[in-house]
Each structure stands twice: as structure tokens, then as C-alpha cells.
Specification:
4 helices, 59% helix
């Protein structure tokens, strides 16, 4: 049921002020705002960026306060992929 650029589900989309998940501007603003919120929630914990990325993928409620969720191989591959995209963008 995830929709649009940021792959938002309806409940998260409406919470982030996205009325049309296929509107790129709305979806991008809402998705970035949501990720910022996840980063803020991860502040002070180990690996805050990685924790926020996994929270974005599976939902913040599924990510525990310890690092075991970050050590899952599938989650590590997701983190590596996203951070790889980030590096490509920064090195343009």
C-alpha cells in the first residue's frame, strides 16, 4: 500500500501532511519531514542515521533501543544501498 516517491502508506502520509501521495512536492516534503523526525528520535542513540533509515523502512515501533535490529543482514544491505545513493548524489 506504499505510494509515491517516498513510498508512504496512507496513515503516515496524512500524518505528515501529504494529501496526494503522487504529488512529488508533497511526498518529498512529507517524507523528508518524517525522516527528520526519525533522526531526532534516534539522537543520542548509537548509529542514529542507520537507526533512522531502518525506522523509515519498517516503522519506528519495530526498531528496538539496542543494536540487534541494525545487525540484521537484510537491514544492513538496505542501509548500504541508501548510503551509497547518498554518496553518489554528494559526489556529483
Amino acid at each position: 500500500g506504499a505510494k509515491g516517491l517516498g513510498q508512504r502508506i496512507d496513515s503516515t502520509a496524512s500524518h505528515m501532511g501529504i494529501s496526494d501521495p503522487y504529488d512529488i512536492d508533497q511526498n518529498l516534503r512529507g517524507s523528508l519531514g518524517y525522516f527528520k523526525k526519525l533522526l531526532d528520535m534516534s539522537s543520542g542513540l548509537s548509529s542514529p542515521t542507520e537507526r533512522a533509515l531502518i525506522s523509515y523502512l519498517v516503522g519506528p515501533g519495530a526498531v528496538s533501543k539496542d543494536d540487534s535490529f541494525l545487525n540484521n543482514q537484510k537491514n544492513q544491505e538496505y542501509i548500504s544501498t541508501i548510503l551509497g545513493f547518498r554518496e553518489q548524489i554528494l559526489n556529483r
